[in-house]
Amino acid sequence: MRAVFETFRRDFALMWNGGGGALAPLGFFLGATSLVPLAMGSDRALLAAAGPPLVWIAAALAVLATLERLFQADLEDGSLDQMLLSPTPLEALVLAKGAALWCAVGLPLALAGAPAAIALQAPAAHVPVIVISLALGMAAFIAIGLVGAAVTAGVRRGGVLIALIVLPFFAPPIIFGAAVAQGEAVAGAMAILGGCALGALALGPIAAAAALRLQAE
Amino acid sequence: MLSQFANPARFMSLSAWAAPVLALLAVALFAIGVPWALLLSPSDYQQGETVRIMYVHVPAAWWSLAVYAIMGAASFVGLVWRHVLADIAARAAAPIGATFAGLCLLTGSLWGAPTWGTWWEWDGRLTSMLVLFVIYLGYIALWSSIEDEEKAARLAAILCLVGLVNLPVVKFSVDWWSTLHQPASVFRAEGSAVHPDMLGPLMIMAGAYGALFGALLMMSMRAAIFRRRVEAARARIGAP
Question: Is the pTM of this model over 0.90?
Fold first, then answer.
């Protein structure tokens, strides 16, 4: 248990402070969403229809950009070997890393979804649901991303490869998340989104840990 | 019984005659199926001649799903029993399955334009099929980007098993979201809803696709095994 907590603390500190920190994906997210009205024109009706789903796309791409180095650094500096030596199951440590990523990047992105959605003319009443759905969606994205990051950890410049592997699996959370963002069938879509997140959280760390054991061989 | 076929030497002697036999079977079935489906079978009373696209589209769709399921089984065997032949089979099947999935999407689009009045619709079946196609591409890309072949096999196998979650989504997408794509018409509890005059050529075409897949898979596996033997021999004599 202690190892899990320490892994979380270490990874959270690394993501929060190192290499542009948590601000980098946040800046990417806000930059990407601010390009939307520039590309589509600032027509209110058009933005209100297309804006909230585009918040989801931008958030998915922002979290994707953080995945490449997630396990690569551990593989290179030997932290992964230490994790394997630890009596704590690797699955739990992987889950701790995912949780750290969610706290350092996922949650700030979900919160930044509020100003972004308002700027893209989402009705103010929808904003709390959009933030909650983004927080759930980030958990699903990260749990799926753990697998993509783990299988490509040994590949140099694997960024595009991760995107190719992970993006098809982003489809279910995006579908139901965007449904929430547009305010259609909110309760049902939110329940399915939560189901996607839980399913991904249950299976993702197991698959990622299996891949990491191979990477360390 | 499976371990009988798991021996590479036995596989090579079996596939030496099984691959050409399957290839001949595929040619024969296509020789029957293509004229039957494209010329002799009746045209649809609503769709007219465009219904003939179905004979290319539906078997491609079935086999793209079946090939992924076979890859999943081979990946499982490769991961659990660390069997080289299973790894080779999964790798060799992927480009064939990707081609079937791409053919399914392409012919579906060509059929949709005159029949539905649109080249593409973001319907549950179409979307999940596109996802299957991209998963195939990701699997192929992952395998070719890792140099250590054994490690690549295991990692790709994990990805393949994760991708299995998409198969039931493709299968049941037409029941979950009854939008544009029609629900299952051939394999259903109440019996097929397709007229026997059309079911005959459809099944022949499906058999032809299956024989083609089997032949291509075995030939591709043989090529991979020969390549490995050459590499092993070169390593033995110390050639670069």
Answer: no
**What was the ipTM of the complex prediction?**
0.78
Cα of B148 to nearest chain A Cα, Å: 10
Tens digits of residue pLDDT in A46-66: 777 777 888 888 999 988 888
Is residue B6 in a domain?
no
Specify the 3-state DSSP secondary structure of A150.
helix
3-state secondary structure of B48: strand
State the nearest Cα–Cα gap between A127 and chain B, in angstroms.
Answer: 26
- Give the domain range for residue B103: 53-179+198-240
B62 token code pair: 């079935």
**Rounded to 5°, angle at Cα B138 from A15 and A195:** 65
Cβ–Cβ gap A161/B141 under 8 Å: yes
CA atoms within 13 A on the CB side of A216: 20
Which of A166, A214, A215, A217 to probe the B interface (max B CBs under 10 A)?
A214
Angle at which helix A171-181 crosses helix B124-145, to 10 degrees, equals 140
Nearest Cα residue to B203 out of B91, B36, B64: B36
In a domain, B108, yes or no: yes
Selecting from B79, B131, B137 the residue whose C-beta is nearest the C-beta of A164 gives B137
What residues of chain B lie within 8 A of the CB of A151, using their CB? 142, 155-156, 158-159
- The 10s digit of each residue's pLDDT in A97-137 is 999 999 988 898 999 888 888 888 777 888 888 899 999 99
- Domain membership flag for residue B46: no
Distance CA B226, CA B219 (A): 10
